[in-house]
Design goal:
Blueprint (H helix, E strand, L loop, with lengths): L20 H13 L6 H33 L7 E3 L4 E3 L2 H14 L2 E7 L8 E10 L4 E9 H6 L2
Antiparallel strand pairs: 1-2, 3-4, 4-5
Helix pairs in contact: 1-2
Length: 153
């Protein structure tokens, strides 16, 4: 039995685990960037293609995780009453408290903000951004009359 170690040529990149085509393309770009004869325009086009592939992969991960997340979300009941409108609702902070652990489990984060530019004296525009650890994010807007906001306090 031969006890010599196997060697590989210098600069060769060894991948373990499943082959990731995005990583292979990035590795090829890194190698090509040191070659002065490589066309910069082609490199830029290749980088744009890689970015599109990464965005598509991130969106697929987001969709898969969102499907798993939705299967585990808790049932949320309306436990507050808007005296002005005489309607039931659940406070946003209660929804957030109930959902945050499941969101985190599936690698999501959620941020809420008020769009000051779109809001007026009559309406408030709330923006919710859902981000996934894979890089994809989506925003949703909720437009509410200010009277409803004040009445629900």
């Amino acid at each position: 039995m031969d006890n010599q170690l196997a060697t590989r040529p210098a600069g060769e990149i060894q991948h373990t685990g499943p082959v990731n085509p995005i990583q292979i393309n990035i590795d090829a770009m890194i190698r090509a960037s040191s070659d002065p004869s490589v066309d910069i325009g082609k490199m830029e086009k290749m980088m744009e293609m890689i970015e599109r592939m990464q965005a598509r992969q991130a969106e697929q991960e987001y969709s898969q995780s969102m499907a798993a997340l939705q299967a585990e979300l808790p049932m949320i009941y309306k436990d507050s009453t808007n005296a002005f409108l005489k309607t039931s609702y659940t406070k946003l902070e209660d929804i957030d408290i109930a959902c945050r652990p499941v969101l985190a489990k599936h690698r999501f984060s959620v941020n809420y903000d008020i769009d000051e530019k779109a809001s007026t004296d009559e309406k408030i525009v709330m923006v919710m951004e859902v981000r996934h650890a894979g890089g994809h994010r989506e925003q949703r807007r909720l437009i509410m009359p200010k009277a409803k906001m004040a009445a629900g306090k």
